[in-house]
Design goal:
alpha+beta; OB fold (Dihydrolipoamide Acetyltransferase, E2P); 5-stranded mixed beta barrel; 4-stranded antiparallel beta sheet; 11 helices; globular; metal-binding; AstE_AspA_cat
Length: 513
């Protein structure tokens, strides 16, 4: 048996003692070292309460704290708003350069009037009488919680008040507030999410405006129905037509709440509105204006669009156009092209028309009207497919037709039976179905019938009105008799478009608003 010496045992005991002492020293050293930088503690929130119910901080004891109601301004319009950033709208967002801070304007020197002789009262009155009246100055535009100073352009955002926070994206609102006073024109597009021509039209108009040379303001909303646009759909996510729920109801359906939010936060700030649309359900439209020609201000707007066909229409109940007119805001609908496609000819025509309108309203420098005046159509009718099948057209948009002319044929792909569609009126093709499969009763050709001149009201100037008056009118629209064609309101609300009265009993239009 191998025996260990006492010296070996002592050496092992000493080694163990040294190891224990080193461990204790290391622990003391770590305890003495400073800890890492303290991490801020997360706020303790009550997750069972919505954010709007958070408690306000309580003032320390012994301090006088005024109620919140007393500190608030008397009028909402008097509340100070943050000034919107002045952006260069002719450049994409990623190319924007930081705008240098504006230099403070030098204050005029205060003259020393202590040694001057006082002016007699009569002489003072005479001087005031002879002095020229002060020129009207442009005012800041208060919109969507911001203040846009004169001579600036910016991007704001509108978001429906009923949306889920953090779920829906805000809708961009482009604003150009001119350096000179004038009316406020609003351009809206994609109220139906699948109508693309209006989006491009608004972009081209807004990004070519010079705020320093503009009189008044232009508000452009390229995509009103952002829900439908994201899905490539005409409707909202609840399958409702947004353009059947204006001016909206803050306690109604989702579509009514969205319509109410947009109408009162954007439209009510405008002097005039142009609502851009296209055909629906594989139909295309000749560029045309639709408006209530019994309203002199709307007649003035239609005459400002240059070479554009005009069709009289009151507008279906619930459309943005009709709700705005009932609120005292002259509004027209500009129809051009088909849904889900970008048509250069339609876009170019629309841009020229809006630029001409800006000139006619005195908002931009004058230039000669383009094109020859187009006729005004006071009545219109739809020619329908009497049988189902594949439709092929023999006419084109804008073509003049006479009663009995062949418009197109519908062929049954199973039986090979071909049915002709012939015009029942003398007029012009304002809208038509694209070649496709149709069901019996499908509205295929929209024919405009020219109006007698005595049916059209004389034009009247469109001027900037008191915004408060417009808001009061929008809050309590006047009770009016139902417009012609409202007998078809049920069909229009189901997704069909505006109903237009014609000389025939068949007046169900399906391609506007």
């Amino acid at each position: 048996m191998l025996l260990r010496s006492p010296l070996s045992r002592s050496h092992r005991t000493l080694s163990f003692a040294l190891l224990l002492i080193s461990a204790q020293a290391l622990a003391l050293t770590e305890a003495e070292e400073p800890q890492d930088k303290p991490v801020p503690q997360a706020e303790n929130l009550q997750l069972d309460q919505p954010l709007v119910e958070e408690q306000q901080p309580v003032a320390p004891a012994g301090t006088d704290q005024k109620p919140q109601d007393e500190a608030a301004p008397e009028s909402k319009d008097e509340e100070p708003l943050p000034k919107a950033e002045n952006l260069q709208l002719d450049q994409p967002i990623e190319e924007l350069e930081e705008v240098p801070a504006a230099k403070p304007e030098p204050q005029p020197a205060v003259s020393d009037t202590t040694d001057s002789q006082p002016i007699a009262g009569a002489e003072s009155e005479e001087l005031q009488t002879d002095a020229p009246p002060p020129e009207e100055q442009a005012k800041p535009l208060r919109l969507l919680g911001a203040e846009v100073p004169p001579g600036t352009s910016t991007r704001l955002a509108w978001s429906p008040s009923q949306h889920f926070e953090g779920v829906y994206s805000s809708t961009a609102v482009l604003v150009v507030n001119g350096a000179q006073p004038g009316p406020t024109l609003c351009l809206t597009a994609a109220v139906h999410g699948d109508e693309l021509n209006g989006i491009e039209t608004v972009r081209r108009v807004m990004y070519n405006l010079d705020a320093d040379k503009l009189s008044g303001a232009v508000i452009g909303v390229p995509i009103v129905n952002l829900q439908g646009f994201h899905r490539g759909s005409r409707y909202l996510t609840d399958r409702r037509d947004l353009n059947r729920h204006f001016p909206g109801d803050p306690r109604g359906s989702s579509a009514s709440r969205i319509a109410h939010s947009f109408f009162h936060e954007v439209i009510s700030h405008c002097t005039a509105v142009v609502d851009l649309h296209t055909g629906s359900f594989y139909r295309t439209n000749l560029p045309q204006l639709r408006g209530d020609l019994s309203n002199p201000k709307i007649v003035k707007m239609t005459k400002g669009f240059g070479s554009t066909v005009v069709l009289h229409s009151d507008g279906a109940k619930g459309t943005l156009r009709r709700a705005a007119v009932e609120a005292g805001i002259p509004t027209v609908t500009l129809e051009a092209g088909a849904p889900m496609v970008l048509d250069e000819l339609s876009v170019s025509h629309s841009v020229k028309g809006i630029r001409t309108l800006l000139n006619q309203l005195g908002m931009v420098a004058k230039f000669r009207l383009w094109g020859d005046p187009e006729p005004v159509y006071y009545n219109s009718t739809w020619q329908r497919a009497t049988t189902g099948g594949i439709i092929f057209s023999d006419v084109k948009l804008g073509q003049f037709v006479r009663k009995g002319d062949l418009l197109g044929t519908v062929t049954n792909p199973i039986t090979n039976v071909r049915t002709e569609i012939r015009s029942q009126h003398n007029g012009r093709i304002l809208g038509m179905a694209m070649n496709q499969v149709v069901q019996p009763g499908f509205a295929a050709y929209h024919i405009g019938i020219q109006a007698p001149q005595e049916q059209i009201s004389p034009p009247e100037e469109v001027t900037a009105e008191n915004e408060q008056t417009v808001k009061e009118t929008a809050a309590s629209p006047s009770d009016e008799k139902p417009a012609k064609g409202d007998a078809h309101a049920d069909e229009a609300a189901s997704g069909d478009e505006e109903v237009i009265e014609s000389q025939s009993s068949d007046s169900d239009g399906r391609d506007e608003d």
